[in-house]
């Protein structure tokens, strides 16, 4: 029986790489908000701040409009957004890896 789109999404959510990437991004965000931006740790948090910026431009604006006083709703939305984006990144990486494995090997001679 062929797998449905929902089955593939559930399988992707079970992938430990998605959970790990989500935790790394959220950890970098928390680390970046607690240290000075001029330190190396602050600079490591830059990708996580890009995630927050993307979130604010999309779902975050909607959540703040619907319930501006609820920080838990806003940060919970950021966690979900980060998780879904991580799942998309891992899925894209898997597709690229499959495409590279299928392509014929090319020898580059100097």
Automatic annotation (TrEMBL):
Question: Organism source for this protein?
Answer: Haloprofundus marisrubri
Listed name of the protein? Uncharacterized protein
Q: Where are the transmembrane segments?
A: 18-36, 48-66, 72-93
Instruction: Keywords in alphabetical order, please.
Output: Membrane, Transmembrane, Transmembrane helix
């Amino acid at each position: 029986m062929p797998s449905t789109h929902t089955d593939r999404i559930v399988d992707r959510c079970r992938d430990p790489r998605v959970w790990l990437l989500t935790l790394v991004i959220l950890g970098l965000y928390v680390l970046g908000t607690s240290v000075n931006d001029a330190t190396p740790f602050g600079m490591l948090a830059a990708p996580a701040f890009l995630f927050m910026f993307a979130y604010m431009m999309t779902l975050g604006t909607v959540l703040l409009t619907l319930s501006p006083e609820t920080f838990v709703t806003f940060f919970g939305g950021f966690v979900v957004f980060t998780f879904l984006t991580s799942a998309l990144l891992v899925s894209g990486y898997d597709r690229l890896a499959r495409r590279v494995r299928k392509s014929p090997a090319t020898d580059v001679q100097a």
